[in-house]
Amino acid sequence: QVQLLESGGGLVQAGASLRLSCAASGHTFDINLMGWFRQAPGKEREVVSVITWTGNSTYYGASVEGRFSISKDNAKNMLFLQMNSLKPEDTAVYYCAASPTRLMADFGSWGQGTQVTVSS
Fold this sequence. Notes:
By secondary structure, this protein is an all-beta fold. Helix content is about 0%, strand content about 55%.
């Protein structure tokens, strides 16, 4: 099993930047995909960005492409999300997740989430 711990959330003004971090521990050798998801109040959880754990293939949700950047440090089992040009609609709880396969449906390990609030 993989344990995930996010950090780096906070309250910022529109246009600012934040960098989220996620530390993975446990059975990290099982990881095939890692990703960031978010959930705003009253809305469904949505995919923000995903990256292959071996290799560097990435995917971005349409609402964040061009503003957010996902990266990783395999040696330190860390995942990052650089968020630039933040908008109030980016306000949500952001979750780090890991999948043992390359299927989006198999994200089964989740962090506790970190709150990102963007004021206008």
